[in-house]
């Protein structure tokens, strides 16, 4: 059975553009919705526990949370679903000029479970620009997705490949309560048939990359 096409939106508006069917599912088909999905991501600025991200839908239902494993030897984050099951493991390279991160399925860090790799487009950059390479793209000559954002505005856009087709957008939400509680609130719009677990993990990496 043929997978549905992904319909995303070119920069600046206009008609929706169909993407290749394989562009949608990165982690699991259950994380691809035929409708637009809005995620709410809360980042705790003053951590007391080993978790620093909570991701919900617009109704406040928990979708994912991110944990920092205690005593980890590397930059490592675990993305858990609402039941506590491990969805992805995010691992940063300790020595990397491009701030390279690798993302694996479940709790694994084995090469066979690699989902994708992220690295900065350039070593020196004023704005955050990340290139995303899916596991099969071993030569890394052309990226499969791009992330563009700015540190001070805490906003970003995820593009399909090197095109201007947008698959997700993030912006920061400021509330009096969130500032008082020492939290960052992000709102992320994920377009139809785009894997929102994949997008959530990209946002976590964007915040973690220095």
UniProtKB/TrEMBL annotation:
Organism of derivation: Camelina sativa (False flax)
Annotated protein name in UniProt: Protein LURP-one-related 15 isoform X1
Signal sequence extent: none
Stated family: Belongs to the LOR family.
Gene (name only): LOC104702241
Gene3D superfamilies tied to this protein: LURP1-related (2.40.160.200)
SUPFAM superfamilies (alphabetical): Tubby C-terminal domain-like
């Amino acid at each position: 059975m043929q997978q549905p096409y992904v319909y995303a939106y070119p920069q600046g508006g206009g008609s929706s553009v169909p993407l290749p069917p394989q562009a949608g599912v990165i982690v699991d088909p259950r994380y691809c919705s035929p409708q637009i999905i809005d995620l709410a991501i809360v980042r705790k600025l003053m951590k007391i526990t080993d978790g620093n991200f909570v991701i919900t839908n617009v109704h406040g239902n928990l979708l994912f949370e991110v944990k920092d494993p205690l005593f980890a030897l590397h930059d490592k984050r675990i993305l858990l679903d609402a039941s506590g099951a491990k969805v992805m493991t995010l691992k940063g390279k300790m020595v990397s000029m491009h701030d390279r991160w690798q993302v694996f399925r479940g709790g694994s860090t084995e090469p066979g479970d690699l989902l994708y790799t992220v690295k900065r487009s350039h070593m020196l950059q004023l704005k955050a620009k990340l290139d995303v390479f899916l596991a099969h793209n071993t030569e890394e000559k052309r990226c499969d997705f791009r992330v563009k954002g700015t540190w001070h505005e805490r906003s970003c856009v995820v593009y399909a490949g090197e095109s201007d087709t947008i698959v997700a957008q993030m912006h920061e939400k400021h509330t009096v309560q969130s500032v008082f509680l020492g939290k960052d609130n992000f709102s992320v719009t994920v377009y139809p048939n785009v894997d929102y677990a994949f997008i959530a993990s990209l946002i976590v990496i964007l915040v973690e990359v220095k």
